[in-house]
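Page 37, continued from 36.
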């Protein structure tokens, strides 16, 4: 029973991206107070899905508001017997990490300096970290990728944002983006329904064949709106 067996078990559950980060390197990406999820850990195994496969495999339950999060935890739990000593972090503990940069450290892509999204060589921006598993012993780390998806690109993503939150002249304006997304969440959809999707992400030229379908895009994008409301209200 090895990391390779764990990866194979995850792949059968449509979780096809796995990387390893030393716990000491993951710690700077941990934010917020409370219990230390890395206490005694030697390594963090980052598990992600790429493209539409994981959503397509979901078994949806009536009344389940967050089926993709629930299914991700269940799938990783089901593969844990192949990684003795592995402990799956709760969703709350997982979300205390900067998951984009943790994914980049694990070699699951690079963080675009323009979109601030994890970009994978095959799947483009259509990658989501589904869970983190901590282990006490050391594991061989997978390391960041030597990959630059944005250098040679004409960057249509920057021109696609309807409110200029992504700009060629300034860093990403997260407040402008959040305000517009929440304003888009009304009874009558606006011409650019940013409550349901990100036009800039849609415009990325990497991994176009793996773009999320409309139902998945809507679910994933709208799931973050309560956090945005709390952030803007705070």
């Amino acid at each position: 029973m090895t990391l390779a067996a764990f990866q194979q078990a995850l792949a059968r559950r449509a979780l096809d991206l796995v990387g390893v980060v030393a716990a000491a390197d993951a710690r700077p990406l941990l934010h917020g107070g409370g219990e230390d999820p890395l206490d005694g850990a030697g390594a963090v195994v980052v598990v992600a899905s790429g493209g539409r496969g994981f959503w397509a495999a979901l078994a949806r339950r009536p009344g389940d508001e967050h089926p993709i999060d629930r299914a991700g935890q269940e799938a990783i739990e089901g593969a844990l017997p192949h990684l003795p000593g592995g402990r799956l972090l709760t969703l709350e503990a997982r979300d205390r990490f900067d998951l984009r940069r943790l994914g980049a450290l694990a070699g699951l892509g690079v963080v675009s300096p323009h979109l601030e999204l994890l970009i994978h060589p095959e799947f483009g921006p259509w990658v989501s970290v589904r869970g983190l598993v901590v282990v006490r012993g050391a594991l061989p780390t997978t390391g960041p990728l030597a990959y630059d998806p944005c250098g040679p690109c004409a960057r249509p993503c920057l021109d696609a944002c309807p409110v200029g939150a992504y700009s060629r002249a300034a860093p990403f304006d997260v407040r402008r983006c959040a305000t517009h997304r929440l304003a888009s969440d009304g009874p009558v959809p606006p011409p650019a329904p940013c409550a349901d999707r990100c036009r800039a992400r849609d415009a990325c030229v990497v991994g176009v064949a793996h773009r999320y379908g409309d139902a998945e895009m809507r679910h994933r994008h709208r799931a973050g709106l309560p956090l945005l409301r709390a952030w803007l209200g705070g």
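Residues 47 and 123 are 15 Å apart (CA to CA). Flag for discussion at group meeting. The mean pLDDT is 89.
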